Amino acid sequence: MKRSNPLPWRVLEEEHLQHCKVFDVHRATMESPRTGESHPFYRIESPAWVNVVALTAQDELVMIRQFRHGSRVVTLEVPGGLVDPGETPAIAAGRELFEETGYRAGRLESLGSINPNPALFANRCHMQVALDCEVGGEIQNSATEETTVELLPLADLSEVLRSGGIDHALVVAALYSFELWRCRDR
After folding, report:
1. Are residues 90 and 27 in the same domain?
2. 73-77 vs 80-82, strand pairing mode
């Protein structure tokens, strides 16, 4: 039996519930196009994010370790953060790379963008590759973050991923996009 594609749901009512510094929570009453019944759904609106896969001339990934409040553990990640108003993803990538690591990129290229979780989030996560990275200054952490730099040889990345040493889903997605980018001309 062939089925048609799902249809969009209709917004009946929308309410802003909470502003939480880096995101806002909304509740929408939505009408099902199939049944006509209404149901409440919650949506998180946030500025765009950027993740930076940074590589030195020695084929080392510039990674950071930082405490994450959601999981309450220290994680190994690529640098990243919010895209500030008026910034392009590339400008934000360079800024976040420098703030969190003290490294500057020789050049930046886009790896594309993804939706962090379309069931809840309305924003995009942009992914950039930063090439020929070199130390350019001191880490510039804000009062709410503390990062340390760890250089990961590119040859060790697969094993670190397999062992669960990197388990942030958006970081894994950025690293996979980086692998696809590396293989594009092979």
Report:
1. no
2. unpaired
